[in-house]
Amino acid sequence: MQCSSLQVTVRTQKINSSFAWRIAAIISITLLALCSHLRADVPTITLGIADQLAFDQPRINIELIDPDTGVVIGPDFASSFLLDTGANSILAVDDAIAELNRGGYKVDGQFYERGVGGVTEFDVSAEYDLRFYGSDGTDLTIHDTRILSSTKTSFCPVPGSCSFFGIVGMPVMDQRVTTMNLSSIGGGGAEFDPFDPFSGLDFMQTTFSDDLPQTEKRRYTVQLDPAIFLPHADGPIPAWSDLAFVPVAPTHDGTRLESNFILDTGAQMSIISYDLAYELGLDANGNGILQDEAIGSQEIGGVGGTIDAPLMVVDQLRMPTEQGVELIFESVTVAVADIDPTIDGIFGMNLLTSGWLGAAFGGSEDFDALRDLLGDAGFQDLLDDIGIDGLQSEGSLYPFFEKVHLDLRPGQRKLYFDLMPDVPGIVMPEGSLHGDVDGDGDIDFSDRQTWVEEIEQTYFGDSNLDGSFDSRDLVLAFQSGEYEDEIEDNSTWAEGDWNGDLDFNSQDLVVAFQHAGYDKGPRANVAAVPEPTHLPAALSGIAAFCLLRRDKSR
User: Fold this and answer.
1) Parallel, antiparallel or unpaired: strands 219-223 and 414-419
2) DSSP 3
3) 467: alpha, beta or left, given left = phi > 0 and alpha = psi -120 to 50?
4) CB neighbourhood size of 192 (10 A)
């Protein structure tokens, strides 16, 4: 989106210094003055309409071991815990703490934790070895650690219906790569059967590694900043690690706000603060309240209890990546709630699982059939309690991400997104696919080649951007009906414009086959790009010269 159509607000922390405020004001004015130049060259990928609630959340299994005896004290049956990037520590409740108590669990003190609903007192355990397991069965251990526990807090919406028995926070994700395989939610591609409400579904797979897994998908990276909330207690301190801020730019009705959201896999829904909501103009009538503009309300639960929050729809959440491309979530339903004065919002799990609901059920009719079937079977109270009855069935019918990787290895603090093939390609505000991506000060064929081979890691001709150039790409391009047509500047990458001149013609075919990627499979499996022959190289030079003249003349 062109910055000239946006109101850009630079959000700053409160500083007790008039000099600092003057500097901040100068920076803000300078950014506004340069805005049209900066935003004009920002490529974007529109992911699609975000789901309202998370379709699934990551879970792992844990157990506590007495370090003196090596004996496992539990939990056994109730060992499944929610993997929560929005939690500083580790918490056992419900059947998990009941099993631990039967195994000889010891408490050394108390700890007061603040959540969305207020402050709650928890027990702090004696020191144990914490062993945890990813979906692949690989076990890891944190030695001599303390966890939180409670016999009063519960995560079961209905007694006996727990999907997890506690929370495992950032301490298990420190110093390693955590991978959430969202594609496993789809149950291997099985189709939905209206007589089997759980057909075509599976749980998300979560694994841990010392190395970042490779991919053949398009991958984008976001730098994370630590969100530091220090524990305060007179007694023993539980295992504790920093949370992560992810950069997000909410955009609504022409207003864009550069903000910091907490990455929170434990949140089923994304949240924005009241300040952010008012600055975005969500209080349309200006009466100082949001309830009359809200599309509904949602009970937000967590440590400390629950609150009732108004639901609003934000036009876009934009996420800047290290590749210079902004990922755009559209029509995002958010709850409005204040978590902490330093937190602008919560980047919830619903954004990561968006599209998998539609992909699993194939549309709103199948999903409505599931809800009706569960309701007829006597599960309506459960649907109401866990929120599935309010799931948005009109969201994207294709998923956004195959996998998401949280990299917290030493010297790293990044989030990686592996995009699914159905996600559209890069688009510039002017309609082209990229700008000056090689940073040499102009836009020419080398930018096109950098975008294709390095950013997208694919070949010229890969119309559907699935990482390979094959017959499916040719079919897709020719189906557009724009080959050698008489309309100028009417073709996109998916419609055969591979050389960047906005038309689909023989020059695009020359460029595609000259780069020798046809039927070679994903680029990651190709050792080197073959050298072009003299004739295609000459034709490529002519195409590059024409492209350069076209771009220079704009």
Assistant:
1) antiparallel
2) G
3) left
4) 19
User: pTM score, two decimals?
Assistant: 0.70
Given CA atoms 98, 103, 109, 115 in this order, what sign does their dihedral have? negative
What residues contact 294, with CB distance under 8 A and at least 6 apart?
Answer: 310, 311, 312, 336
Tokens of 335: 């709850």
Domain count for the chain, please give it.
Answer: 2
Tens-digit pLDDT profile for residues 297-334: 887 765 556 778 899 999 999 999 998 889 999 999 99
Extract the tokens encoding 505.
Answer: 């013609």
> Among all chains, which residue has been given the structure tokens 């994370």?
224
pLDDT tens-digit profile of 190-232? 454 544 444 455 678 999 999 999 998 889 999 999 999 988 8
Is residue 122 one of the residues assigned to a domain?
A: no
Answer whether residue 328 is part of any domain.
no
**CA–CA separation, 357 and 77 (whole Å):** 29
Domain span at residue 481 reads: 445-552
C-beta atoms surrounding 133 within 10 Å: 17
DSSP strand pairing (326-336 vs 44-49): parallel
DSSP run (H or E) holding 49? strand 44-49
Quick one: three-class SS letters along 76-108?
Answer: CCCCEEEECCCCCCEEECHHHHHHHHHCCCCEE
- Say if CB 56 and CB 356 are below 8 A apart: yes
Report yes or no on 511 lying in a domain.
yes
Please measure the distance between the N-terminal and C-terminal CA atoms of the chain and give it in whole angstroms: 18
Question: Is residue 479 domain-resident?
Answer: yes
Token pair recorded at residue 134: 């990813």
